[in-house]
Specification:
12 helices, six-stranded mixed beta sheet, ATP hydrolysis activity, 334 residues, amino-acid transport, translocase, membrane, ABC_transporter-like_CS, 32% helix, Rossmann fold, Alpha-Beta Plaits
């Protein structure tokens, strides 16, 4: 559904050029919810603007469906943008208009008849759980309700794609959960492809099917959530499955391991010790469910009165579905 090829955005400055997006390649499947996560200044908002051609890339392609948005006429681009709904960090509602009038704005712009606009707005207001508030003004709504209106407005033109730029960063945790559940529900019901820009890993964990890590305008990692979380060497995995606070681990060998699905049920310490002459201490552990799959992340201290065969331990863990990252090794066989 969405393909980005060699996307680059350079802002020309009198003293130096600023590269905001640097040669990005990305594919997002139909019906997928894809999270793009990064710190402030990583280039997330610039990427959103380039995806809609509100900011024209310096180089590269943005393909939505079968249409290259960087190669179409202005008229074709305006039509293509109607297939892309936008949800912003702040709902940006017009205070002088009712909820229904705010939702109907995209239809008003394309001269849809008033009765049709009203009927569509009422339908969408019900969809986002605001029944009975169609004639209410934004000032009378909570932050979460205003964001629901923003989502309804983004759906007014029946888009294929929903772009969400930090849609929950101004909300409290309980309201955030409700908005994420709503986005998931709407995406499934309307068969939407969703791109959500965020700096909050909790949003990715609770909503996304796939994820990309953006830093300094580059995508450092990208993939299905289950794949990146299952790779202990992935920076995203360590953020998705953080270990709890723990004491410093002193052992002959210190390793991190991550397993998923059936591997989670493996008794990790006894399994390693059964095939290797070592003792195993679990220093920290985290078990979570992400995108419908269970994951286990362990920090292990391994000791032995003999040189430790790291290759043998890695082989044992691999057979049981775990990936391994060595943190420290002192008593390991050369």
């Amino acid at each position: 559904m969405i393909s980005v090829r060699e996307l680059t955005k350079v802002y020309r400055q009198p003293t130096r050029d600023v590269v905001a997006i640097d040669d990005i390649n990305l594919d997002i499947d139909d019906g997928e919810i894809h999270g793009i996560i990064g710190r402030s200044g990583a280039g997330k908002s610039t990427l959103v603007r380039c995806l809609t051609l509100l900011d024209r890339p310096t180089k590269g392609q943005v393909i939505v469906g079968s249409q290259d948005l960087t190669a179409v006429s202005d008229t074709e681009l305006r039509n293509a943008r109607r297939r892309i709904g936008m949800v912003f960090q702040h709902a940006n509602l017009l205070s002088s208009r009712t909820v229904a009038e705010n939702v109907a704005m995209p239809l008003e712009i394309v001269n849809t008849k008033k009765a049709e606009r009203r009927a569509k707005a009422i339908e969408l207001i019900e969809l986002v759980g605001l029944n009975g508030l169609e004639d209410t003004y934004p000032a009378q709504l909570s932050g979460g309700q205003r964001q629901r209106v923003g989502i309804a407005r983004a759906l007014a033109a029946d888009p294929d794609v929903l772009l969400c730029d930090e849609p929950t960063s101004a909300l409290d945790p309980n309201t955030t959960e409700g908005i994420l559940n709503l986005i998931r529900s709407v995406a499934e019901r309307l068969n939407l492809t969703v791109v959500i820009i965020t700096h909050e890993m909790s949003v990715v964990k609770n909503l996304c099917d796939s994820v990309s890590l953006l830093d300094a305008g580059k995508i450092l990692e990208s993939g299905k959530l289950s794949e990146v979380a299952g790779d202990v060497n992935s920076q995203l995995s360590r953020s998705l499955l953080p270990l709890p606070t723990h004491d410093e681990v002193t052992a002959d060998l210190v390793i991190e391991v991550v397993g998923k699905a059936d591997a989670v049920n493996t008794p990790i310490g006894t399994t390693i010790a059964a095939e290797n002459p070592v003792t195993v201490d679990i220093a920290a552990a985290n078990i979570e469910t992400l995108s419908g799959t269970r994951f286990a992340h362990y920090l292990l201290g391994i000791n032995s009165d003999k040189p430790i065969n790291l290759t043998g331990i890695e082989a044992t863990l691999a057979r049981h579905g775990f990936s391994v990252r060595v943190r420290a090794k002192q008593g390991v066989q050369a």
